[in-house]
Structure formats: C-alpha cells, structure tokens
Design a protein that fits this description.
With about 170 residues, this protein is mostly helical. The protein is about 75% helix and about 0% strand. It has one domain (about 1-165). It has helices at about 1-10, 20-25, 30-35, 40-55, 60-70, 80-95, 95-105, 110-130, 135-145, 150, 155-165. The relative contact order is 0.13.
C-alpha cells in the first residue's frame, strides 16, 4: 500500500522536462509520439522513467521502446484520470471479483475505466499494430507486460515487470 501511495504522490507532481522530450523523439516514430502525447502526463513520465532506467542498464532498443509504449493502451480512455485510476486500483485490490465484473460489463465511466485499466496491454498492442509498428518483439512485450505467466519464461519481460512495478 505504501508503494501505491508513493506512486500516487509521484503522479500528482509528474512533469516532463526538455531532456525527456528529446529522449522520446530519439526512440519513438512521429505517429507513436503523437499517440503517446495523448496519455496523461503521469503516464508519460512513468513510461519515460522506465525507458531511461532500461537504457541506462544497457537494454536493447526494443526493450527501451517497449518501456515507452507499454501503457499506450491507456490512451484509449481519456477519462482514466488519476482519481479514477486510484479507484480502479483500490477496487481491484479490495474487491477483485466486483472489479472484474464491472470491467467485463464496460457499463458507465467506471466500468469503462476498469476495462481499460485491466486490458490496456492488449489494447496497447492493438494500437501499435494500427500505427504500423512491425517489430513483433515490441508488440509482444507491450501485450504481455502484466502477464506473470509469460514472465516465467522470458527474462527480459520479467526484468521489465520488476522495473515497472518499482516505478
């Protein structure tokens, strides 16, 4: 719970600086960057922080790009504000069955927010395919970045998930 409170606090004050924008333009195509910029600033900063961490660890280009693009599916739900995201996280932690049912129904703004929150990896992979991303490894990493089973057989994905969880 302390980790989630820290994430919330970081999200409240998230800002991108000039070097973040340069980093983004170095790694994303123009089209990817346009969609990326539709994410709330806290998601953008989170993704940049992950990608920079991966870059500094010497990760391959595909993993750094996946770090930037892993939450791109959330761009499909502009109503997924920091408050609604917090509600989603709390519901998923305290009432997982209710959260899954509400997400499955997609009814109302909360149902849609829960659906996108729970399914953003798959949505993100579809967005990348629509944008013309042809790198299957990036699409796979985005699609599976929250898949604990897939991480058991892919060391890069497992390492990525640890970093994502920390940030």
């Amino acid at each position: 719970m302390v980790r989630r409170i820290r994430q919330f606090y970081k999200a409240l004050f998230a800002r991108l600086n000039k070097s973040d924008y340069t980093f983004l333009s170095d790694y994303l195509t123009k089209t990817e960057l346009e969609v990326f910029m539709t994410l709330p600033v806290f998601d953008r900063k989170h993704s940049v922080d992950i990608a920079r961490h991966l870059h500094h660890q010497g990760a391959q280009l595909e993993l750094v790009r996946a770090g930037l693009l892993h939450d791109i599916g959330k761009a499909r739900c502009p109503e997924l504000t920091i408050v609604k995201r917090s509600i989603c996280v709390l519901l998923e932690a305290l009432f997982p069955k209710h959260a899954r049912n509400k997400a499955t129904s997609k009814k109302g703004k909360l149902g849609r927010a829960l659906y996108v929150h729970q399914n953003h990896p798959e949505i993100g992979a579809e967005v990348l395919e629509i944008l013309g991303c042809t790198d299957e490894r990036i699409i796979w990493l985005v699609r599976h970045h929250a898949d604990k089973e897939a991480a058991k057989t892919d060391d890069e994905l497992a390492a990525f998930m640890v970093i994502d969880d920390r940030m």
